[in-house]
Design a protein that fits this description.
2 copies of one chain form a homodimer.
Chain A: H1 9-27, E1 30-31, H2 32-39, H3 43-55, E2 59-65, E3 72-78, E4 82-89, E5 93-100, E6 105-112, H4 120-137, E7 143-151, E8 154-155, E9 162-165, E10 170-173, H5 175-183, E11 187-191, H6 192-203, E12 212-217, E13 221-227, E14 230-231, H7 268-274, H8 282-294, H9 298-322, E15 326-330, H10 331-339, H11 341-348, E16 361-364, H12 371-386
Parallel strand pairs in A: 4-7, 7-11, 12-15, 15-16
Antiparallel strand pairs in A: 1-3, 2-3, 4-5, 5-6, 8-9, 9-10, 12-13, 13-14
């Protein structure tokens, strides 16, 4: 039960401003009539509020002729002069995108890590350079509202300290502070899977769903959750560590110190090694194994089936714990699921005697590998969407 | 992200009424001065709102002399003339309590099932009789606001249909509708572990925490969660099914159709059978095994240690997934934890290489076996706490 607090009228106004801005950011250009209906406010209130957003430079109003009867309608349009820079720090590459209010990707670049190194100083420098290039290439009148970064690790909510990002070899790295100092701009950092589920919810395979599990595997497995429409963060921002549920008491040993973690049974390298391939080939190598399995190579087929069974074991635990409407699969989980859908579903449904559970739909991520990147943009838009009046006036 | 909606002034007033009533229900008698401070509203607003609550018969105001300076203070007191009936349908017994606004248990009775039967018609009749006896024994001027029931099973949120309660042998039983019809009163039903976490949050071991896992074992294991201060229900009310996470790929077979579920490794009967006792002895038999282990009986000691290790495996998965501030243990999980705390903690912390996670405190349930019962009372108080103005005027 949240602590009850009183609500004043200024707060009310801010809530309504926020509601309008969030709506046009999410849906794109929206008529005043739709806003009036959707928010349950009267027309003059909507007019005053959109006027204020316009004077803040966050929206423009256009008069459009909509529908057959030719009546002109005021269209409230998110202003793409407001942008954020989104960054996804992956194990293999860094992706940087310029994203406008309303969610459109205006520019985007990708680069491998410098000499393949994950040293935090190198990563900060690479990211900073890519951001500067991106902003330099953009037209001059843009207002950059912030920088959002996705990292594959546990991030402390208060200050963006990266507590542990095993696949980058980071422990207690003040990445966010370093990047913010280097850029002289505020930076927000989040866990890649938490940002992935956010993006899939706002613009992907989970639009319209409030209870969502996003599970994405590459080397490790990331989990991001929406619970009743809100992101699951946990007390300190570490929730969603799905890879280290024990699924087998007999092993194998996991790098975390325990045995039989889900991550030791699924994931890119597990599949590759079971199929007799070298670890480290990434999504392309996984695709090759799946193609070989389809072409009849027994060892590849066995590997795909085995990993599909274990995918189902973990998804089943998640479905039982969270009762989501939809489970969105990313990375190699999506690859295996598309290759062996029936087998994964069989494994998920193995405890059918348990209960007539609500059906959770399984889907591939609609934003593909970009979910965390788009989620990082949403993270960076967060402050202005929460407090439109606090938008910086300098461009 | 919740769908943004506009907020009107009538809604604002209702929110403030609600905030005051929830505060005095949770904290007990509270001075106007504290309410003013806590809710951030001015004194005259608080006065008007408590006046309205008083005219609705939900609170009384008393003038008390508080503190050393002898200044009289208006004390807002929840009126215990408003009661609910709380019911906990267990496998062995039914408990019924009369609970006043403010949370005090005014009366309470417990009875075994009729001829040990769980047939839904028998259970409905037993519960109804116990409720009628409870209300008949109470003083005449009470206003009964509702009936709340805890059941050990999956409950559909919309209508209280009990989808599956394996330890009662129920599948798709319209228990709530049957009881409501029999009593001619509204009845709300919830899962016992979901209600347990609610009670521990409002009045038990999890007061002040927003991210809480409540895990309680008897024959099966129930899980109830608070996530960011809100109950985890899942899309259809089935979330928190912790007993059927697979923790061992090699078995044993579980009654759910799968193998190696957590429930096959912990729980009363698992402990009893591993210690060479007969299943079915309940908490007393578990206590006997723990005493025997302490006295040096090797088989009992081995059973306790083994179950303690497996308790830790499941708790570890929950800690990794939810990152709770506190894990509240009930039933035989609490018994085993108190008997072998160091061993459970060792097992929970087995993946120390994973990350410096936020510390989750492990605790026994403060309300003991009453957590679901007290949670059922909170469920029944829910409508009036949400909409104080909609309180029925008839006593």
């Amino acid at each position: 039960m949240p602590t009850p607090t009183g609500v004043g009228t200024e707060e009310l106004r801010r809530a309504n401003l926020r509601a309008i801005l969030q709506t046009v950011h999410t849906l794109g250009p929206t008529t005043r009539a739709v806003l009036t209906k959707q928010l349950g406010l009267n027309r003059s209130t909507i007019g005053a509020l959109t006027g204020e957003l316009q004077s803040l430079g966050l929206v423009t109003e256009q008069t459009a002729v909509v529908g057959g009867r030719g009546r002109p309608s005021h269209l409230v349009v998110p202003s793409e002069d407001n942008v954020v820079v989104a960054v996804d720090v992956g194990v293999d590459r860094i992706a940087v995108a310029l994203v406008g209010l309303g969610g459109e990707v205006l520019d985007r670049r990708t680069r491998g890590h410098q000499r393949g190194e994950h040293d935090v100083a190198h990563v900060v420098e690479s990211v900073a350079q890519m951001i500067e290039e991106t902003l330099a290439a953009s037209s001059g009148h843009l207002r950059c509202l912030g920088v959002g970064v996705a990292v594959p690790g546990a991030v402390r909510a208060e200050d963006g300290m990266v507590r542990f990002a095993p696949n980058l070899g980071w422990v207690e790295e003040p990445f966010t502070e370093l990047l913010s100092t280097r850029l002289d701009r505020p930076v927000s950092t989040g866990n890649d899977a938490n940002l992935g589920v956010l993006a899939e919810h706002v613009r992907g395979a989970a639009v319209g769903f409030s209870d969502v599990a996003y599970l994405s595997a590459s080397v490790g497995i990331g989990g991001g959750f929406l619970v009743g429409g809100r992101p699951l963060t946990g007390a300190s921002g570490y929730a969603g560590e799905v890879g280290h549920m024990q699924v087998d008491g007999t092993g194998p040993d996991c790098r975390c110190g325990a045995v039989g973690c889900w991550e030791t049974k699924v994931g890119e390298n597990v599949l590759l090694q079971r199929a007799g391939r070298l670890a480290g080939g990434g999504p392309e190598a996984v695709a090759e194994v799946i193609a070989a399995a389809r072409a009849g190579e027994p060892r590849a087929a066995e590997a795909v089936n085995d990993v599909a069974d274990w995918c189902g074991v973990g998804i089943r635990a998640i479905v039982n714990l969270f009762n989501p409407e939809v489970v969105v699969l990313g990375g190699s989980l999506a690859q295996v699921w598309r290759a062996a859908e029936a087998r994964v579903v069989d494994s998920v449904q193995r405890n059918t005697l348990l209960s007539p559970r609500g059906d959770a739909a399984l889907r591939s991520a609609a934003l593909g590998d970009d979910s965390p990147l788009i989620g990082a943009a949403e993270l960076a838009f967060g402050p202005v969407l929460d407090h439109p009046q606090a938008v910086p006036q300098a461009v």
